[in-house]
């Protein structure tokens, strides 16, 4: 998925994804092909699931 598509799915701006990549803050898996950054939809969905919290 393109960065814009991933950002829309996650609910953030593309620049936020860039900051997360640079800082390693949320460890969202990505693939780098030359200068292009891509995300696998299955990885993004797994990542979202792992971030799900329940309130006790």
Features:
56 residues, mainly alpha, SinI_DNA-bd, DNA-bd_dom_put_sf, two-stranded antiparallel sheet
**Class based on secondary structure composition and strand pairing:** mainly alpha
Stretches where pLDDT is under 50 for at least 5 consecutive residues are: none
As a whole number of angstroms, the C-alpha radius of gyration is 12 Å
Number of helices: 3
Largest sheet: 2 strands, antiparallel
Quick gist of this model?
The chain is mostly helical and 56 residues long. It has helices at residues 3-10, 14-23, 41-50; strands at 31-33, 36-38. The longest helix has 10 residues, at 14-23.
Secondary-structure map:
Blueprint: H1 3-10, H2 14-23, E1 31-33, E2 36-38, H3 41-50
Antiparallel strand pairs: 1-2
Pfam families: HTH_17 (PF12728)
Domain Helix-turn-helix: 4-51
Organism: Crenobacter caeni
Task: Describe the protein.
- With about 55 residues, this protein is mostly helical.
- The chain has one domain.
- About 50% of the residues lie in helices and about 10% in strands.
- It has three helices and two strands.
- A two-stranded antiparallel sheet has the order 1-2.
- The longest helix is centred in the N-terminal third of the chain and has 10 residues.
- The protein starts with a helix and ends in a 6-residue tail after the last helix.
- The model has no long low-confidence stretch (mean pLDDT about 95).
